[in-house]
């Protein structure tokens, strides 16, 4: 774990560990990274994130960064955005990516899946109204294809339209011609990605050893 | 169904028996001296002239002569293949049996029968069909190429670590455990096998320890378990070839030399790396050359599939030249070549490649199992109860122990752990097959060889019959997750891509370079450099999401065209169309001076009245239309109308129709003709009169891929929309007048 300069006392770690489920070593590593990113300030801001060079070639970096500053992801049922985050909030957001442990009951697995899907949903639903409208979905696809130039823009629209059609037909079944499908609600989103097995896919490995080196 | 099957069954049965007899007769006469033309068992020649003295000058011109030797070899080969295929057909006519017993077992039984018949005819006939050279050079490569070319890359790379551990460490463990145990058993006085030395036992162990890809494929294909387990067992069976090759050569060399030093053991380890990495390197090189070649084949599409096959086969042979792992080379070639070749070749070539590979691998697999049965009969079998039974038991035990202990270690490193159920299936699915048998055949001829072969055959039979038959009910019993039916959902593809980028981003934020980071780097490298070289034209810059989308559209379009041209209509649902999700429309609608509903009905009636008269003429504009005889208008009109109504309903919803075809290849952009516009005028099914302005919307999807500017329809001002609609309605053939009382 190494000696951290201003390591918070163990009770704080214990608190965080209970809240997020990380181990003490993992929290230590992440704390070190937090300090590295924030240049030893107590809070992180958006420009700190933008300064990460590896993130520069990621097509959806804006949305990823926004997700950290979105109060809906702090598990406190708040809404809105913040301008800067503390280590605790950083950790809570990261904890969405923890893998489920091996011996879990089906309900626990289900709740973890819901949580991860909720995170994704929040990332898509930028205006916070509880539905992903066609516009917002189009924006998602455009960002994904943002590196393909003009070719990408036109097809992005069609792809988003097709995707929306699919959601609508899966969730609503038959629709009268003059009915209007408002947008993807969270229940529809769950139904849509039911077979996706997100609890096995949306995980990254949090190491117990300190390997934060090259990426500044 | 059974009633009219019986005559078919009977005739098939007759043909099969005839074929069996013919095959056995032909093979029995195989090694007769080619000088004499018949053995008395061949069918009597039509003309006895060939028996007469050739110096007889006044010989009449032979109208019909018999010369079998000329075509003996190809004739026999064809007969065998025909037999194999007829057997395959036959099994499906008897559904009950083929549901319980996997095909591989049935084929082995057939092989036993044929071998028995041949033996009955001629005691000395060499029935050794599973000649090692024949097997390794001709029978095995198609199966491996098929497996490697269509290997699902995503689960394979995600589980590569696990697969490698099972393949390498697991096989090593198996080999040594079996070898040492058998040596120990042989030392026991009672067994009377004291002559067996350690190295022979280890050699035997290394042969019998490897999980066989052919057997695994044959059995697992029928039980449809989930992707993870399938790729684990299958990947292991493919990658353990390197270990088997190294161990086999190692122990063969050592048993010649007699003594083993530490240096030799060290060299053995080094040779393992050389064999596996060398094989992969050769395969990758041939793969890249193949991809590069496919870049220039745009003018000779017909030979494209041949390039794929030949380059892969050359990769296999080249690796075999240097005693490297041919299987790994073949797989590396297929894997490397595939993404680039698929972007370059035509749709038809892709289909050809797919079906040829499936065909060859299917024939090979069938032949392998039949020959396995035949060769069993051919061998003298020195039977030693202890040795054979202990071998079988020890194989099973070592497999279970190996899998359990390795999983314990692997689970510490895996994100998604393997459960006990998974471990059981992995252990139980470790089938042995023909590779072990052929390797055994290559053993040096000593007194132990026959005993080893017997033991190997017994293990193979045990795993294929017992484990193969019981794995399906066990899978049901344990409620193992089955393969989920993938519908090619565009949403899932979007989210897969999204998740990839998201996880890469999070890894970067966390500051550690994990799996996603490197994958992302590889993809970017691929896109920036490799694709430019290996893919022609603008396809090289096409992102994956777009190619997926194009594929799906092609699929939908083809399904539409095919079902449209057939007269029957699958009744599919999905009545959601673009107008249901477009948000802007309500605003536009209000800007129009609204016409009262009754007025609208009037307009419609008038239009329809006019259109009716022009209907006959207009019908010819549509491609989907049948040319209807005006005399049978009444009957066919209703049918036609219904047909068209269905067509247009499907057209406007076509993106939501689930595709139930196999995956179709990526294609260049296809421009749909504007004839398709015909069916988007849609007003008559709904009892509520639908607003006519919604018409321009559906053409959007149709013209997706073409750059035509019907998109401008969308931007048409509200005032123009009425005109547009009228214009459209003039060029459309009307679906037909509905009775007035149908409308509300």
UniProtKB/TrEMBL annotation, chain A:
UniProt KW keywords: Calcium, Cell membrane, Cell projection, Cytoplasm, Differentiation, Lipoprotein, Membrane, Metal-binding, Myristate, Nucleus, Protein kinase inhibitor
Record Gene3D superfamilies: EF-hand (1.10.238.10)
The keyword Calcium belongs to this UniProt entry's keyword annotation: yes
Cellular component GO terms held in the UniProt record: cytoplasm; lamellipodium; nucleus; ruffle membrane
Topology in membrane: Lipid-anchor
Limits of the EF-hand domain: 112-147
Alphabetized Pfam families for the sequence: EF-hand_1
Subcellular location: Cell projection, Lamellipodium; Cell projection, Ruffle membrane; Cytoplasm; Membrane
Family (UniProt): Belongs to the calcineurin regulatory subunit family. CHP subfamily.
Entry protein name: Calcineurin B homologous protein 3
Organism: Sphaeramia orbicularis
């Amino acid at each position: 774990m190494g000696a951290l300069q201003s390591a918070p006392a163990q009770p704080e770690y214990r608190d965080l560990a209970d809240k997020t489920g990380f181990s003490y070593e993992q929290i230590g590593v992440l704390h070190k990274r937090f300090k590295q990113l924030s240049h030893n300030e107590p809070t992180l801001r958006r420009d700190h994130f933008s300064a990460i060079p590896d993130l520069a070639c990621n097509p959806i970096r804006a949305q990823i960064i926004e997700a950290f500053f979105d109060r809906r992801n702090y598990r406190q049922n708040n809404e809105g955005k913040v301008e800067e985050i503390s280590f605790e909030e950083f950790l809570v957001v990261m904890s969405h990516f923890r893998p489920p442990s091996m011996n879990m009951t089906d309900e626990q697995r289900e709740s973890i899946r819901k949580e991860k899907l909720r995170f994704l949903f929040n990332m898509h639903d930028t205006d916070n109204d509880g539905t992903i409208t066609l516009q917002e979905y189009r924006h998602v696809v455009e960002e994904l294809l943002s590196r393909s130039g003009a070719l990408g823009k036109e097809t992005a629209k069609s792809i988003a339209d097709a995707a929306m059609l699919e959601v609508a037909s899966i969730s609503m079944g038959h629709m009268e011609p003059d009915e209007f499908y408002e947008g993807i609600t969270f229940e529809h989103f769950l139904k849509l990605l039911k077979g996706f097995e997100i609890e096995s896919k949306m995980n990254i490995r949090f190491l117990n050893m300190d390997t934060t080196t090259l990426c500044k | 169904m059974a009633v009219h099957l019986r005559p078919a069954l009977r005739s098939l049965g007759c043909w099969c028996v005839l074929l069996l007899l013919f095959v056995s007769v032909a093979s029995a006469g195989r090694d007769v001296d080619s000088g004499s033309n018949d053995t008395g068992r061949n069918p009597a020649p039509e003309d006895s002239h060939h028996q007469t003295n050739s110096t007889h000058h006044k010989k009449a011109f032979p109208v019909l002569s018999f010369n079998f030797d000329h075509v003996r070899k190809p004739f026999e080969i064809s007969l065998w293949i025909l037999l194999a295929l007829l057997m395959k057909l036959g099994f499906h006519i008897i559904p009950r049996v083929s549901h319980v017993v996997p095909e591989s077992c049935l084929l082995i039984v057939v092989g036993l029968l044929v071998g028995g018949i041949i033996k009955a005819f001629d005691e000395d006939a060499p029935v050794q069909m599973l000649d090692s050279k024949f097997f390794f050079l001709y029978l095995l490569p198609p199966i491996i190429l098929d497996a490697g070319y269509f290997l699902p890359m995503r689960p394979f790379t995600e589980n590569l670590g696990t697969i490698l551990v099972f393949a390498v460490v697991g096989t090593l463990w198996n080999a040594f455990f079996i070898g040492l145990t058998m040596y120990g058993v042989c030392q026991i006085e009672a067994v009377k096998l004291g002559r067996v030395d350690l190295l022979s036992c280890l050699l035997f162990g290394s042969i019998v320890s490897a999980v066989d890809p052919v057997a695994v494929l044959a059995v697992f294909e029928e039980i449809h378990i989930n992707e993870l387990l399938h790729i684990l067992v299958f990947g292991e069976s493919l990658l353990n070839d390197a270990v088997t090759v190294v161990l086999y050569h190692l122990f063969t060399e050592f048993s010649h030399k007699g003594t083993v030093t530490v240096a030799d053991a060290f060299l053995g380890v080094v040779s393992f790396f050389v064999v596996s990495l060398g094989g992969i390197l050769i395969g990758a090189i041939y793969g890249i050359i193949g991809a590069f070649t496919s870049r220039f084949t745009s003018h000779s599409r017909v030979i494209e599939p041949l390039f794929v096959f030949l380059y892969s086969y050359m990769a296999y042979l080249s690796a075999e030249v240097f005693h490297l792992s041919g299987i790994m080379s073949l797989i590396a070639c297929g894997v490397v070549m595939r993404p680039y070749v698929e972007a370059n070749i035509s749709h038809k070539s892709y289909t050809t490649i797919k079906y040829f590979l499936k065909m060859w691998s299917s024939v090979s697999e069938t032949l392998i199992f039949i020959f396995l049965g035949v060769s069993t009969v051919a061998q003298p079998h020195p039977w030693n109860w202890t040795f054979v039974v202990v071998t079988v038991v020890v194989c099973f035990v070592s497999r279970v122990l190996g899998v359990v202990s390795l999983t314990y270690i692997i689970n510490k490193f895996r994100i998604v752990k393997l459960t006990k159920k998974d471990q059981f299936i992995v252990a139980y699915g470790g089938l042995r097959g023909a590779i072990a048998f052929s390797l055994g055949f290559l053993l040096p001829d000593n007194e132990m060889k026959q005993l080893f072969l017997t033991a190997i055959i017994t293990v193979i039979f045990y795993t294929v019959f017992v484990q193969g038959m019981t794995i399906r009910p066990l899978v049901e019993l344990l409620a193992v997750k089955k393969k989920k039916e993938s519908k090619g959902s565009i949403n899932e593809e979007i989210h897969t891509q999204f998740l990839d980028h998201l996880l890469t981003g999070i890894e970067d934020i966390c500051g550690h370079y994990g799996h996603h980071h490197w994958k992302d780097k590889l993809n970017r490298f691929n896109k920036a450099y490799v694709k430019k070289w290996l893919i022609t034209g603008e396809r090289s810059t096409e992102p994956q999401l777009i190619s997926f989308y194009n594929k799906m559209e092609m699929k939908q379009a083809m399904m539409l065209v095919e079902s449209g041209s057939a007269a029957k209509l699958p009744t599919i649902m999905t009545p959601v169309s673009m107008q249901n999700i477009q948000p802007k429309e309500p605003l536009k609608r209000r800007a129009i001076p609204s016409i009262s509903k009754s007025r609208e009905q009037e307009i419609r009636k008038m239009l329809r009245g006019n259109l009716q008269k022009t209907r006959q003429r207009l019908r010819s504009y549509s491609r989907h239309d049948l040319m209807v005889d005006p005399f049978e208008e009444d009957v066919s009109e209703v049918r036609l109308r219904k047909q068209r109504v269905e067509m247009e309903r499907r057209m406007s919803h076509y993106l939501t129709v689930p595709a139930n075809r196999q995956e179709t290849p990526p294609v260049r952009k296809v421009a749909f003709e504007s004839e398709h516009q015909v069916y988007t005028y849609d007003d008559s099914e709904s009892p509520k009169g639908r607003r006519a302005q919604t018409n321009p919307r559906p053409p959007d999807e149709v013209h997706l891929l073409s750059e035509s500017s019907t998109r401008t329809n969308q931007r048409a001002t509200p005032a123009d929309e009425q005109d547009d609609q009228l214009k459209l309605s003039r060029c459309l053939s009307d679906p037909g007048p509905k009775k007035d009382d149908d409308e509300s």
